[in-house]
Amino acid sequence: MVAVELIVRDLAFGLMLGCVFSVVAHGLNIIWGVVKVVNIAHGEFIMLGAYGAYFLNLFAGITPLESAPVNAVIGLLVGYAFYYAFLHRELRNKQTITLQSEMVTLAATFGLSLFISNLAIILFTGNPVGVNYNPGTLQFGYLHVPLAALYVAIVSILIIAGTWLFLEKTFIGSTIRAYSQDVTATELVGANPATVASLATALGFAVTMAGGALLTVWVPVGINPLMGALYAPISFVIVVLGGPGKMWGSLVGGLTLGVLIDLVQAFATAQIAYAAAFLILIPVLVFRPGGILK
User: CA-CA distances (angstroms) from residue 112 to 27, 34, 40, 41, 235?
Assistant: First the structure.
């Protein structure tokens, strides 16, 4: 009976962890799927989102849930600046992403990643900090669910559902989807491809930095300048699992990874659990290169 209770507990916690993993990776998924750019600096913007939640809590007393929309607004502005500073010159007037463009954008975002992480060490020091947010627990029989984790899971799903509705049910969203499939089609409907690409990038950054704020609930003493080195690979695995550009793929990949990590941790160390999570990428790339979600 104890083993059954342990598995149920790990499954529940794995699903909630998977939800926050999903939203953290969702911003990368949007940019990768629409603009066809792999942002190597993705982990650093997750880190900045986490620090944003920390400082908002420190100076304004607001919770990670309340800081998520503030981070999203900041992320929109940062995303626009990122696009025009690092992507626009290379991507403008191009109908497809060439190998040269891929290499240029990879090198540019890699350099940005190193710059941000080292600047963060100087500004924030290497000492980990955290946000104390504990609204209590909810009990289901023998299962005690932290309300903070449950709230974050719900908000994460709402964010993914909101972006899906925006892309599927609005004219701007349809234009973004047209850009992801055919740049020429975007021009035919009278839209400026650069404007569309910058909007998609800004949306991706908004979700990423909001996700960084929500992640602080799971790392109450683990916010540090190098945390992106863990969550960037996790995000890449999730996007590949679900399929780049597939909005619900973020949730499928995140839940898969979250459950796998939490269940393996019940019988092995955290290092082995994360290694197993990354190992799952190999059969997916071999047998389902487009992601497990059709």
Answer: 17, 21, 8, 6, 18
Output the CA torsion sign for 24, 28, 31, 32: negative
Nearest Cα residue to 245 out of 77, 32, 88: 32
What domains are defined for the chain? 10-128+142-287 (1.10.3470)
Q: Judge contact between 65 and 140, C-beta under 8 A.
A: no
CB 250 within 8 A of CB 23: yes
- Token pair 């463009």 is found at 101
Q: What 8-state DSSP symbol labels residue 96?
A: S
* DSSP class per residue in 97-166: --HHHHHHHHHHHHHHHHHHHHHHHHHH-S--B-------EEEETTEEEEHHHHHHHHHHHHHHHHHHHH
pLDDT the model gives residue 119: 95
Buried (b) or exposed (e) across 66-104, using 16+ Cβ within 10 A?
ebbebbbebbbebbeebbeebbeebbeeeeeeeeebeeb
Burial class (CB in 10 A: 0-12, 13-18, 19+), 125: exposed
Angle formed at CA 213 by CA 86 and CA 158, multiple of 5 degrees: 95
> Coil, strand, or helix at residue 223?
strand
Segments in the chain below pLDDT 50: 1-2
Q: Which two tokens stand for residue 139?
A: 């009990």
DSSP state of 86: I
